[in-house]
Amino acid sequence: MGAMITAHPSLLRELVERCENLRRRLAFDNSADITRQLDDATYTPCDHRHPPAGRGAACRTSG
Predict the structure, then answer these.
(1) Among 5, 28, 29, 45, whose Cα sits 20 to 30 Å from the Cα of 19?
(2) Which is nearest to 22 in space by CA: 44, 3, 5?
(3) What are the pLDDT tens digits along the chain (63 aa)?
(4) Measured in whole angstroms, how far is the alpha carbon of residue 4 from the centre of its chain?
(5) Which pLDDT score is estimated for 11?
């Protein structure tokens, strides 16, 4: 098993803030562009072994 790589806390805070902002925007404007941006942002910290159709699914919260 390889070494585990961890992100700097400030990068993680920035990603969480970006995801929260995009979720709020998506609640008002359910556009394909915002959905794609949210998918891209949630894919970053997630397990990259998931197929593209499931990108970010493991990181998303319901509601």
Answers:
(1) 5
(2) 44
(3) 566 777 788 888 998 899 999 999 999 999 999 999 999 888 766 555 554 444 444 444 444
(4) 19
(5) 85
Contact 25, 40 (CB under 8 A): no
Range list of H helices, the chain: 9-28, 32-43
Q: What token pair was written down for 61?
A: 């919260």
> Residues 59, 48: contact at Cβ < 8 Å?
no
Place of tokens 């970006």: 18
Cβ neighbours around 22 below 10 Å, total: 19
pTM (2 d.p.): 0.61
Burial class (CB in 10 A: 0-12, 13-18, 19+), 19: buried
